[in-house]
Amino acid sequence: MAPLPIKFTEQLQLNAVGVQQQSIGFNSCTLESDNFVCIRQQAEGSAQPEVLIVNLKNGNNVMRRPIKADSAIMHWNKEIIALKAGGKTLQIFDLAQKSKIKSTTMTEDVVFWKWFSETSLGLVTDTSVYHWNIFDPAQVSPQKMFERNQNLSGCQIINYRVDDDEQWMVVVGISQQQGRVVGSMQLYSKARGISQSIEGHAASFGKIRLEDAPADSKLFTFANRTQTGAKLHIVEVDHQSPNPVFQKKAVDIYFPAEATNDFPVSMQVSQKYKVIYLVTKYGFIHLYDLETGTTIFMNRISSDTIFTTASDSEGSGIVGVNRKGQVLSVSVDETTIIPYLLQNPENGELAYKLASRAGLPGADNLYQQRFDQLLTMGDYQNAAKTAANSPQGFLRTPQTIERFKSVPQQQGQLSVILQYFGMLLDKGKLNQHETLELARPVLQQNRKHLLEKWMKEGKLGCSEQLGDLVRIHDVALAQQIYQEAGASQKVIAAMAESGNFDQILPYSQSVGYTPDFNSLIQHVTRVNPEKGAEFATNIAREDPSLIDIDRTVDIFQSQGMVQQATAFLLDVLSANKPEQGHLQTRLLEMNLMNAPQVADAILGNEMFSHYDRQRVAQLCENSGLMTRALEHYEDPASIKRCIVQTDKIPEEFLINYFGRLTVELGLECLDEMMKVNIRQNLQAVINIAKKYSDLFGPTRIIDLLEKYRTAEGLYFYLGGIVNITEDKDVTYKYIEAATRMGQLNEVERICRESNSYDPERVKNFLKEQQLTEQLPLIIVCDRFNFIHDLVLYLYKNQQFKSIEVYVQRVNPTRTPAVIGGLLDVDCDENIIKGLLNSVSPQSIPIDELVGEVESRNRLKLLLPFLEATLAAGNQQQAVYNALAKIYIDSNNNPEKFLQENDMYDTLQVGKYCEKRDPNLAFIAYSKGQNDLELINITSENSMFRAQGRYLLERADPEIWSYVLSENNIHRRSLVDQVVSTAVPQSQDPEKVSIAVKAFIDADMPVELIELLEKIILEPSTFSDNANLQNLLMLTAAKSDRGRVANYIQSLDNYTPEDIAQQCIDVGMYEEAFLIYKKASQHQEATGVLVDHVVSIDRAQEYADQVDLPEVWSRVAKAQLDGVRVSDAIESYLRAQDPSNYPEVIEVAAHSGKDEDLIKFLRMARKTLREAPIDTALAFCYARTNQLPELEEFLRGTNVAN
């Protein structure tokens, strides 16, 4: 049996890697390429669904992710997964980077989706088809391509294909119709924007290069099975001239007789072999030639349905998954397919073309025979074509070339050998021998441009021999050929020859070839110095070991190329390695001798640290680079020799340089600078001293400056630190220096702003200086409260003007202390008054002024000033306080001032009056409602009447509570005055009520009764006040019952109901009876006698007195309850009240009082017609044997039972 023309392999059994059988199906298992299988499943016993990704190219490694989705498809070759949830939500994730790439929400459900390229997804919804490029940031959401045709309505979409140019698309769907599965397709052209409905089950796109065609033809192939048969169709789309037209193919698809329900499910086109793979539902595979449609092979590869397939990544075969979980791969077997086809003579031509097209073995003899036959026949063109198309180029040999070269050239025609080479160039790349044979005649004909063209197109087989041949004509082209051929030495020689020095090093590195770079550098430098330096730098930068750096520098210096040598060394030494120290020194020496500014820049960049610092320092000093010399010298003598030349050293550097020196060396250098040239160097010394004042210490700097007696130096140095120092001596020295320099404004500023000086010391210094301007002294004394000393000093020296300046301009608020000082030295009052008048009253703290003057018992002195101040509109409270005190002391009608003026401080003035006149204090306190102070002063002076009146007017419950507290030893005295005077004299009911409530809250019933009797029983505004009368009686009922009866008789405006009830509550029944009786509330009075006094006889007597029906009814009920039946009936008769007839009938009948009952019932029948009444009357007549009355009753109208 001949071997099969295919390779058939089971790559994997999905069940073996943990995939559940129920998860292996079209909806849950997807295959987009031969790299990944993606399965959605939910493991048994797990609540979390998961996605399994099997990597077919990595040992079938399984990646599990806890993902819940409706669909999941993997990218062709990247770890990128596309997920669909809820039908509309699409998300793309990069699993390797653990990041989301894109997401979107569609407006309608996606029913099918597929990767149709390495960048894009195809999405099919119920109405439309979309494309979504997931790597294009500009395409945020899918782009609509076209709308679905009606022929797909109701179909299950099973595939979507797009050609390589994305110009043609096809949607494939299936549906159940009349017991069979019908395939429907929609073919769409993007360029034309139109669709075509086609009946078919599977489809794909492919390309093929027809014989003698300049370009590929685009083909659309699809398969369909109908009720009458099955066909495979291959048609051309987008025909391009001048390609020959591809003839449509329609070939039968064979299905076994038993496979009546079988139909195509997928189709893939192998771009490598130009073979169509067709898979059916029942697991059959068909192979067809794409160009002719010829059947190559058919067999069954699976007994289970293959529900998904994809092309392999090499474009040679297909991979698929069946229901059983097998991952199967099928591809052409290159070693057997040609022999398999040659078994059938009809397939000879197919075998011939397929072997040429895919370079397959097995047809060599066929080609060799045809080639020899064509040469013999003289058909050289077809012979050349046969050799050019021979499988794996086995006929493309030097012998073939020689045979073509030996063919004579026909007149006016292209030689056979050149025709042959033309065919080879059209087909692809020439081998090295072919290229050499072609290049010779081309160069002889001076057509070098053809070689350049073919070189760019990659069609020449390059060799060293070809390069040597071309080098005579074009070095650059030869260089390219040498590079392609790998002739490194000749490549570098060509680069050097053409001046492409910058290409030498990169090329050497890329190919791993190491030439003699030092010789190359010397050669390049002679030709082009700039290129030589650049070349050397590039070599050293990449690998310094390739060249001798010292030798390279010698090359540059030998030709006087200092600049180039500098550039080279700067680059080479950039790593600043210790072993390069001698080269660093050489670089700096070279430039210090030839270009000091360059050396200065190099040193300024601080690139190097391993050179000979002493040698460089000497060269810097010789070159006049003092800053660099100082940076490098370390011995004090050299440093001091350079540092005094301040005219050659920038000030900023000089100042910063001192920060590097020790304290001792720094001070020595400053001393040296002052000693050598104080005029030139003083300013620099001052600036340095300011900068490093903390480091050197102000004391030592001051000593240094004083050593050279430079007051100017002291002033400017100390001026730089005085604002930040906390050293009192420094500040004092600055004040001294500024005074000697005549800088009194600066002295004044420091005295005002600084907190770091000894005020006593400065004050004494300023006094000793006898300055013409006393403002600094005034400021010191003002700040540190030396006012008394200041006033004495200025008064003693007759500097009244300075005193005025002080209180007028410096600090008017110190006026009180100044006035006090002047009073202490017995200054003339007119001077003091004049001084006061010269200061704005608004600026003077009146309280302090009054205090100063008052403490010296000279308060009257201020009267004119205060009155003038008041007249000027000054409304300060202190003014009024002072005037009040003066009026009090002078007894100038103080009562009127205190009563009428509202501006003074009542508390302060009241305190002032307490020892002088308590009555004035009372006026002040009462005006200011200073309650506690008023209570204290009136209590201490037994002014209880005034206190009582104040409290009544104040009407403040808290104050009342305070004075009525048990802790108040004066409470009784106060209460006496309140009761006897304050309350009786008051006309305000609300204030009296507050006072009464205060007595109640203080739980003082006896005192409350006294108060109430005073205002109620004695004639007053409140005598008829009902609330107060109620309060009096209630209070007496609780605390003094003996008074209640008298109150009942003497008072008339109380509320009898409330008071009587209160008496009842406390057991005062007789008083309650009297209240009701006086109020003519007879029924309530009777109730008291009956219910509380429990005297029915007294109640009956009371009823006789008032003779009221309701009273008789109340008495009758009590008598009935006491089983005094006859009396009760008699009372009911007097009341004419039959309402209680049920109880009366029951009790009287039970007591045998029929005669009395007959009287009651007759009275009752006058107003009531009730059956119980008539029935009881009948029984009473019967029991008393009053038969005539009974008969008369019965004959009359009645309701007896």
UniProtKB/TrEMBL annotation:
Q: Which domain of life is it from?
A: Eukaryota
**Gene Ontology MF terms:** clathrin light chain binding; structural molecule activity
Q: Where is it found, in Gene Ontology cellular component terms?
A: actin cortical patch; clathrin coat of coated pit; clathrin coat of trans-Golgi network vesicle; clathrin complex; cytosol
CHCR repeat feature ranges: 540-686, 689-831, 837-976, 983-1128, 1132-1201
GO aspect biological process, one term: receptor-mediated endocytosis
Instruction: Spell out the protein name for this chain.
Output: Clathrin heavy chain
